[in-house]
Amino acid sequence: METTHRVFVGDSRTLETIDDDSVELVVTSPPYPMIEMWDDLFTELDPDIGVALDDGDGRRAFDAMHAQLDRVWDELERVLVDGGIACINVGDATRSVDGSFRVFPNHARVLEAFETRGFDPLPDVLWRKPTNSAAKFMGSGTLPPNAYVTLEHEFILLFRNGGDSREFEPGADRRYEAAYFWEERNRWFSDVWTDVQGELQDLPETDASDDRRERSAAYPFEIPYRLISMYSTYGDTVFDPFWGTGTTTLAAMCAGRHSLGNELEPAFLDDFEDRVENVPSFSRSVARTRLERHREFVERQQHQADGTACSYDAVHYETPVVTKMERELLLREVTGIETIENGYRAVHEPVVPGEN
After folding, report:
1. Residue 337 forms part of a structural domain
2. Which Gene3D superfamilies match (predicted)?
3. Measured distance CA(283)–CA(222) in Å, rounded
4. pLDDT band at 198 (very low <50, low <70, confident <90, very high)
5. CA separation for the pair 224, 351 (Å, rounded)
6. What is the pLDDT of residues 205-237, one digit of tens each?
7. pTM higher than 0.90, yes or no?
8. Which end of the chain is more exposed for a tag (fewer CB within 10 A), N or C?
9. Are 240 and 234 in contact (CB under 8 A)?
């Protein structure tokens, strides 16, 4: 099996390179309005935003920033197939503007924007971001009533494009082979993720001194990998309009899906070339870690008198599974990468137990 992964440089408010109804899944993390590191970017897109910030008018700046994101959401409505899923990772912002501290609810504004465009909101996910700071207090610290809660979580907002779910032919191999294990389903489809850090490690950075990763607001590899596994099948195309360091593309490669990306800053694409060479070994580790963890789960269940029964045998692996839908599950790994116009082609092979 082969997948293609193309990245285009340009403005995601006008996605001329992406055809209508050409992607099945969107996984992205946009710049967050009212986070200071993004002020310059938003001001470049609309100089009135800088004026509003200078005037101390936080609400006007907030609305104007989201107006720029709205143009991207218009494009997503166009390129996403009917029934396709959009996963938007976004955090709220806390900020003092004109001497007054408050929260700017980005997640609520994005939710409203998608619903206005005809998307159906689905149950969302909260994931907790670890903090390295021992001084978490904002405001008056230990004195009531003027201390403030520290935001340590972000939202993964989930939307379906239109009212109907996607349909597949009966027994579609690309869907059944892309199944996830029962215990993964229970963990992944929880509405709070506290185990993201360290579950499936990201590729190492090639230049730790480069600040582009911070400016990209990249999320951990585990987040797009889970979402791609949850909401797409083999053969689907995943799109990230705020590509950044390419984490969504890496996850799509490891998950055996096609991908498209759009990025405003060309330097990110140069950085990505150094990461791609490690994808085969990394994807092998990701897939085999999933299989090994499943076997550990089975072993635990066999020693619990009241544990869930693993009543079916997997077709491709010598391991029992809990449900009939898992029987055809077939993990894939990248065995080769080649450069193509605007991106890469990845060759995938099924994971064979016992091979290194």
Report:
1. no
2. Vaccinia Virus protein VP39
3. 12
4. very low
5. 21
6. 544 335 544 454 578 999 999 999 999 999 999
7. yes
8. C
9. no
The domain in which residue 242 lies consists of: 2-280
- Please tell me the distance from the alpha carbon of residue 158 to that of residue 8, in angstroms, as a whole number: 25
| Those residues with Cβ within 8 angstroms of residue 295's Cβ, 6 or more apart along the chain or in another chain | 319
* Residue 210 forms part of a structural domain: yes
Strand, helix or coil for residue 336: strand
Q: Which two tokens stand for residue 267?
A: 């330097």
281: its two tokens: 């070994």
Asked whether residue 181 is assigned to any structural domain, the reply reads yes
Residue 327 lies in a domain: no
CA dihedral for 115, 120, 126, 129, sign (positive or negative): negative
Beta bridge partners of 121: 159
User: Is 255 in contact with 225 (CB distance < 8 Å)?
Assistant: yes
Q: Count up the domains in the chain and report the number.
A: 1
CA distances from 266 to 19, 121, 239 (A): 22, 33, 18
- Report pLDDT for 202: 58
